[in-house]
Amino acid sequence: MALRLVSDFDLLKDVLPWLRSQRAASAAAGARGGGPGVLENNYESLRILNVERNGNIIYTYKDDKGNVFFGLYDCRTRQNEHLYTFEKDLHVVSCSVNSERTLLAASLVHFTKEGRKNELQPGSKCLTLLIEIHPVNNVKVLKAVDSYIWVQFLYPHVESRPLPENHLLLISEEKYIEKFHIRVIQEDGNRVVLKDSGHLPRERVVEDFVWAQWDMSEQRLYYIDLKKSRSVLKCIQFSADEKFNLMFEAPLDITLSDSGFKLVNFGCDDLQDQENLSKHLTLCVFTNHTGTLCVCYSPKFDSWEKITYSVFYFHKGHSKTFTAALGSVDSHVTKGLTFLNLEYYVAVYLPGHFFHLLNIQHPDLICHSLFLTGNNEVVDMLPHGPLQSLSGSLVLDWCSGKLYRAVLNQSYLLQFLWNTQLDCEKMAVLHYVLSCGRDPRFLEAKIIQWISESISACHSFDLIQEFIIASSYWSIYPETSNMDKLLPYSSVLAWNTEIPGITLVTEEIALPFMKVHSFKGYWEKLNSNLEYVKYSKPRLLYNNSMVQREWHSLISEEKTGRRRSMVYVRNILDNAMKVISNLEARNLEPRLTPLFQEEDNHQRLLMGLMVSELKDHLLRHLQGVEKKKIEQMVLDYISKLLDLICQILETSWRKHHLHPRVLHFSRRASAAEFTVFHIMTRILEATTSLFLPLPPGFHTLHTILGVHCLPLHNLLHYIDNGVLLLTETAVTRLMKDLDNSEKNEKLKFSIIVRLPPLIGQKICRLWDHPMSSNIISRNHVKRLLVNYKKQPQSSMIDKSPGSVEFLPLNYFIEILTDIESSNQALYAFEGHDNVDAKFVEEAALKHTTMLLGL
Fold this sequence. Notes:
The chain is α+β, with helices and mostly antiparallel strands. The protein has 21 helices and 32 strands.
């Protein structure tokens, strides 16, 4: 299963044994009735009432006499505590306890035997009580009305000291919300009582709303009111300083009835008729610490053949409306649609039909979200009962009395990655594992193993490219906010392939209007996201286009012998050295692959230029972040890129048991070398299109394997098309390792004529062969004659002893000798002091002899 629900709390396991032990203790003490353990025949009444911000769980149960008991389970100590007993047979609507556990608020109703739980009988009263429970003392009636009331204590973010004032929200079925200010004092030591209980100040927070949701973790109230039949989403933030602020208003393009009323996360709502759950709309708001704001909405079902649901990505400025096919007409939907908040993702779940894992951090492309239909076992992985999504990936199944924590099932997803045939599913799972998985190094190793065996399995995108970009992104993402706007998340910019079983429509939406002007924490990040959507056209994502132009310019200057300031080039190479040092410091294990063993100035230039350009990019757009931190982030990011390439190579190298002896040319290639060569070629393709640097030594290793594995005509084709780059290290090794057989002579000559002039001159001196002498002589003559101006010569040619009677050659050699003697200082250079006119004459004669077959 892709998603596992790990039990954090279970009424039957964490509470029921304690209640039975309390009953046994009461019986042993001779207690008669009324004890908290008397529910042996009435355990079905045990149910969860609320989950508070600190994770404590409030529950209730009835004894044989119908007395109502309130208990609390402390999630930290794993201990139960009896809070209060109400000695009347009433039904509990809602309950909440303050953070100090000194006050209990409860809302209760009385039902007649014929009454239904969702209907108050004529004359019935909903009692809202405030009870002193430290110790149990006075009971204050806050309200006695003919409509339902829900209660919720506010929990301040500062819990280090008891607060003199508590704040309680009362939510009325008559569509208003009040806030009570409750002051307490201590008497007789630790006894906590209400101060001035006869008059508790109150204020209206909200009026005329049709839907509301409570965020227990962040102490936020989301609600919708109707203005001229238009739905407007609003949010109130409650603070520890007793204040509350309306943070934003956002128009919602959904249909809500003014006569309707819906609450989300105000305790466990067992007043809802679960048999008709699928006929009601579903609406919930999800946020996370990165500043996302999503509204998930599913209207009433109007068809058994398909279901429609929408997600409003306010932090991105658009909505997506999905339509999922449910299969045959006979596939009756008996359960409602469930939305679950999973931090960077939202899960949309319809039991027995489909499971949709929506990427809310990067929702632009549908391929980054995972859609699984009823043909897959994963759609039955969650309980079929109604689930309530709480903060921090908590999921409450209040029917069974269990609180779960939703976690990624790494092993299942990795296996799914190996088995799935659809490119869209490979893409979605790859990103999910990298973004949400634990132990990134382990997961990267598993993904690399999969890539090595499935390198040609994807047709819609480059597997290596996507892995390198996504993994590098997530390695640096937690460092600072706004990184999702500045670094590429995926190598895929558009996706036009249909996803089986689902269609979608994307629309622009109006952005929330922020009602305050000073932001902190989440609100600062949300406002930054909204500002980006408003003003950032085009997008600010980094790319290497500037690096590419500058790199080509530097290489061109090198070829023509012109070079700009040595200080500039030295700074670039210093940047590259920092990247390599950073990489080596993070990876202490010895590498089997022979990389980083040569200078490879071209790759170092590319590396250094990328450091410089990426640093400038982040400095421009990351306001308020220290320059030193940005510089380290840049080094970490580029080091990660290179490390992933090294990991892919290292995995292939070890898997196929390659040895450094493959670097020698005097041996035949094995099937393993063919496989590694193919993987290296795919790595080169992936990095070339994005213009990413490669580890120094990559091209040397790639060329050596190419010489081993390819026939000569294919090898030359790869070289001529830039797939194989002839490095000085690789060609030097080739000249030294291979003898001068006819086949090897042809190979060496084909290689030498394709070398850049500067490297070619060095390499020719390593090959003791007439062909090499001929090339050296041609280059020497070319250099001498490039600026030659004909001077008057005497008609008589001096003959040195042993000279050949061939006047054209004699005349030519004399000219070269004159140039050499007159420009000796100018033409002397390292490595060429043994090349002179005499050397040219001998090479010319040898070449003529070979051509004449003498």
